[in-house]
Design a protein that fits this description.
heterodimer; A: 182 residues; mainly alpha; 0% strand; globular; B: 216 residues; 2 domains; disordered C terminus
């Protein structure tokens, strides 16, 4: 039952973008007499400036994340956290992914692929991993891009709040999977 | 805060890299990621232009104002500083909808548009406003209704299993994000001061961050 439901949703999702691309201008032109072509070009002009404006912020964050990953610091962090995680019943196989998720999208997708290859898509480790992946975002990347685009330098509580939400997401992924799929 | 995290990350990387004998990989990663950053940014240009163009039409036709008005009962609680039917609300809602539907490519430009509009309301252009942090936190907690295509491809038929768990986990992290933002925004480390002092807030906030990291 749930399979047909998700299939249906995913099928529907394929039409969302085309529907928006044609629907919004159609409404604007038919109901409000907006000069759609002219207005589109006017808005599209900003695409380049915004993309270029985020480059320094992206370089800063991604270089730091890349160095951190390559140095093996993640393994050190893993060892430090192991006792605490054993205590709360967090499966050690899923920890690298939980730590990687806020740092790097491609890195965490790689770790999820590893889990699926090693334990199989049907395993609890893979299901927890996929839930984690789907329920959180690359916090540092989003922060760099979103704040960078408007030139905000002082992020205040954005990082602690984002990481706290990631931690809650990862832990609830573990318990929800064990509870509902176990 | 980012000053400390950034400095900490690159310092730890070099120190750990030296001990693990992976210093060459660290160097390579720094260079590769610098390159990748520009590729990502330039790769965004076309998609950004497309969605910003469509958004401009949505704005000109009044669609965004309509959406903003409809969802005011919810958004007024999350973003009390943003005035009624301000275009920022419309952009925020559109960005969240795009995220929910797994339309990553469409979500980013809509989110940047929302940030720009929130920046207009921000009295201190270099410091994030309460509304900006709230928006970012909800965004990074990932409001997901449809699974990312990559996960579906990777998990195959099993993806139906994790559909419900993903929605529920997403719900937990989003609620956590909203609560923690509301709690933190008035603490002495993060409170907005009329005349922001450089460094002072950052210094006090560093230990909190470390505590957070340890817990994970």
């Amino acid at each position: 039952m749930i399979e047909t439901f998700t299939d249906g949703l995913n099928e529907l999702a394929r039409y969302i973008i085309p529907a928006l691309i044609v629907g919004i201008p159609l409404y604007a032109m038919a109901a409000r007499r907006v000069k759609v072509y002219e207005v589109f070009v006017e808005g599209a002009k900003d695409g380049f400036t915004i993309a270029v404006r985020i480059i320094p912020y992206l370089v800063a964050i991604l270089v730091a994340v890349g160095m951190f990953r390559a140095s093996g610091a993640l393994d050190v962090l893993l060892n430090l956290l192991a006792p605490f995680l054993n205590f709360i019943g967090f499966p050690p196989e899923n920890l690298p992914l939980a730590l990687m998720r806020p740092l790097s999208g491609s890195g965490s997708l790689g770790l999820l692929t590893d889990l699926v290859n090693e334990y199989g898509a049907d395993s609890m480790q893979a299901k927890i991993g996929a839930t984690m992946f789907g329920s959180s975002e690359t916090t540092f990347y989003v922060l760099a891009v979103y704040f960078g685009s408007v030139g905000v330098l002082r992020s205040r509580h954005a990082v602690p709040a984002g990481l706290f939400a990631d931690a809650v997401g990862a832990i609830s992924a573990v318990y929800l999977c064990q509870w509902l799929l176990g | 805060m980012l000053n400390y995290i950034w400095m900490g990350m690159i310092l730890i990387s070099v120190v750990v890299g030296t001990f693990t004998g992976r210093i060459d990989q660290v160097t390579q990663a720094a260079i590769d990621m610098a390159k990748l950053s520009v590729e990502i940014a330039i790769g965004l240009v076309g998609i950004m232009a497309l969605w910003l163009g469509i958004m401009k039409i949505a704005e000109a036709s009044g669609l965004i104002r309509i959406i903003a008005k409809l969802l005011r009962p919810i958004t007024i609680r999350l973003f009390p500083d943003v005035p009624d039917d301000h275009p920022a609300i419309g952009s925020i809602v559109l960005n969240m909808s795009a995220n929910m539907l797994g339309l990553g490519n469409a979500a980013t430009p809509l989110g940047l548009k929302a940030m720009e509009e929130l920046q207009e309301l921000n009295p201190d252009k270099k410091t994030a406003s309460n509304a900006m942090v709230m928006f970012l936190a909800i965004n990074t907690s990932s409001v997901q209704l449809i699974l990312p295509a990559t996960v579906v491809a990777l998990m195959g038929v099993v993806s139906a299993d994790i559909f419900i768990t993903t929605i529920l986990a997403t719900l937990c992290s989003t609620i956590a994000a909203i609560v923690i933002v509301k709690v933190l925004e008035n603490t002495k480390w993060f409170r907005l001061t009329p005349a922001p002092e450089d460094g002072a807030g950052d210094e006090a906030s560093a230990p909190v961050e470390q505590g957070e990291g340890d817990e994970r």
